[in-house]
Amino acid sequence: MGWLRWLNRGGVWVWVLLVGLTLALGSCAIPQIKAEERLFLPLAVEVLDIYNLPSQDFQETTVGGISALAYDRSVDQFYALSDDRGRFGPPRFYRLTMGFGLGDDGQPQFKDVSIQSVTPFTDGEGNPYPQGYLDPEGLALSPRNTVLMSSEGDVGRGIPPFLGEFDRETGRLVTSFRIPDRFLPDDANPPTQGVRNNLSFESLTINASPGTAGQTEPFRLFTATESALVQDYDPDPYQPLRSRFLHYLIGEDQSTLIAEHAYPLDLEPSGAVVNGLTELLLIDQGGHFLALERAFGLRGFNVRLYQLATGGATDTSTIASLRGVEGISPIRKHLVLDFADITVPVDNLEGMTLGPRLPDGSQSLILVSDNNFEANRPTQLILLRLQG
Question: CATH no. for residue 173?
């Protein structure tokens, strides 16, 4: 009891001490971190170099229309997808090598880019696809020595969008993945549901490295529509549109749609004739991605690079139409780079991949443009340093 009596007699002093500590802690310069900032990785990019690949022919095909890029680190080789529907050669992908060095300023830069081979896509019987049937837009290298490809289809001709897996060496179809009915245009004129023409599956990425043939471990595949579906479209120009983002689980004998989320597009710029999501790139196993948004109109190209955080986004797979629906938590996005802020104008950027380590040890990020097969327009390759 003597300790308690002493505590009572000295209680005023203890109280004063505690107040002093509280005031001292309150005056410390503790950084205030917003909840949104904790959603994203601390990423930054730096534009290092731009390389213009001239228009050229290669093995009876015209090199152009490059809409996607992928990199196989195990053999230091790039894959480039052409979105040719059959006008300048069959639907196809190229293998490329890219060399990097240091410039006079000590910064990494492109040294040389060389096309090594071309592989056409064929159906399961090894036959060429009819002209116009495929519109290849998204590309990824799977861990089972195959190429994954997304095609936009052609609404006007009744050709549906397509997700397929092809042998990497022969280009022959191995399997196709089921696309939910809500993405398929109906027979109405005009359609009342499904993807809108030329605004379908432009992007594709997976969560596994290329690996080697024979691997059967399941992996995840992600794709998204370039813009809103017909049933989601809001004609109000002051309301941003929402794309749909799909998450598949791919196994040895299965392909299952795990979830679907709403992706909030930037508000369409004044005078734009096209605006949408052109590429996705998974950057970790925690649901973080890089995304390219591209608009084109009277002011030329407007391209922005975002980081995405998918955690906490509402599953929209059971929502027939997103138009006017509230209470949905969309994918969150954070601006990484607005290309309007760099000194060199960029072109029609549609592809993106993580490349090799650069000569200074930093991680490369490489973007590519689609020149739409215009002879006087090069294919633009942009080298960035990714830090984070």
Answer: 2.115.10
